[in-house]
Amino acid sequence: MAARSLAKNTQPAQKSSKTRIGPVLKELSRLYPDAICSLTHETPFQLLVSTVLSAQCTDARVNMVTPPLFKKFPTPQAMAKAKPVELEELIRSTGFYKSKAKSLLALSTDIVNKHSSQVPKTLEELTQLRGVGRKTANVVLGNAFGIPGLVVDTHVGRLSRRLGFTQQKDPVKVESEMMELVPRVHWTQYSHWLIYHGRAVCMARSPLCQKCTLADLCPKIGVVLSPAAKTMLKRPHVATRAQKSD
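Structure (tokenized):
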């Protein structure tokens, strides 16, 4: 029997986003209770640098690059004095290394000169640093300072749309709409949960809808499920641990 059967005349009415967001958050928290930022860091400055390096690069690659980088330049004071060629060589494998090296030198210098060598704790100040956009700023706020920040990367944007919480494709617009929907206390974890779920179950290609415990809450299932498919979806499911190499 086919996993899904198309309805002849009607589709089941979808619950509103406000009705579904609570159950979705509850289930994500159950699936991924230990979800954390996958960038290895010990200080806010190290997290800031790692996040800048993660642009167009995997977290796994960044985590391979940063140990020798931070051993040589552990603080903004040290990195501000680095020679461009030194930084470029250390971060070469992350891609766009010349541009990233310029950003790291500039932001380190500004942190030293404008912020008394301390990474600023506001979105406005962080985004004034070279190479730091809203995504990077929210990563630092949420994971270094415990200040709720809703990060929209490719996973978060894709899953927010699939779950019917937004139709926006621009990350800033997605962030704005999700901040209105998701309780502020969950902003940081919402991003972690969707990243984990996007890696483990709801992949960009061939998402595992029939194994997803969010299926009953997801408009992605835009058809009437057959009895067999509904039974399959209700079977106990243990989500695969998210791979940290994405």
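The CA atoms of residues 33 and 193 lie 9 Å apart. Confidence is low (pLDDT under 50) at residues 1-13, 222-226, 235-246.
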